[in-house]
Write a structure and sequence with these properties.
mainly alpha; Tetracycline Repressor, domain 2; 2 domains; 9 helices; 73% helix; 0% strand
Length: 185
């Protein structure tokens, strides 16, 4: 008998949710399949219908999150033929705020460096329009600048998400005014 797609998705979501609950509490290496299935209320066999191991479910959760972020950013880039730094920053900050329960862990010291690297690759096109006019910079210098700004933005948004003492609009205005106004065109 074939399983219904809705039931399959519901089961996968329950397993992912259980995994994520555990991952926010302890390192990946300490999470077992038994932990996940006990938390989700399924047996080990059900887990193996969808995932090979703990690392597979972790990879799928990260990839789904990054794919969602990339889709929103690509849509924003397609729909905005002019560059507005505040609008682009709003897209980024709102995305990171929406997925903050993932980002706070994935971007922390015990997170995944590959996640951070791919996130930077996905985000760069938003900022690249801003830096396109940076004159006098060769390709190597642009790589240094992009790393500096991407790392700073990710760190700032992560810090703000952990303790948001400003509204999203105030935070974006603060970044645009204090960080980007110093960049010469």
């Amino acid at each position: 008998m074939k399983k219904q797609p809705q039931i399959t998705e519901q089961t996968k979501l329950a397993l992912k949710t259980a995994f994520w609950e555990l991952y926010t509490q302890k390192p990946l290496e300490k999470i077992t399949i038994k932990d996940i299935t006990d938390t989700a209320g399924y047996n080990r066999g059900t887990f193996y219908l969808y995932y090979k191991d703990v690392y597979d479910i972790f990879t799928q959760v990260k990839d789904e999150l990054l794919d969602k972020i990339e889709a929103v950013i690509q849509e924003s880039l397609r729909n905005n033929d002019r560059f507005d730094l505040s609008e682009q920053m709003a897209v980024l900050v709102e995305l990171m705020h929406t997925y903050k329960h993932y980002g706070i862990v994935l971007l922390s010291d015990r997170g995944d460096p590959r996640f951070t690297a791919r996130l930077k690759e996905i985000i760069w096109p938003l900022l690249d329009r801003y830096f396109i006019t940076s004159q006098g910079c060769n390709e190597y210098q642009m790589k240094i600048l992009s790393e500096f700004y991407l790392s700073g933005i990710i760190a700032a948004v992560t810090k703000w998400n952990a303790d948001p003492q400003m509204s999203i609009d105030q935070f974006i205005s603060f970044l645009v005014e204090k960080v980007f106004s110093s960049v010469s065109h």
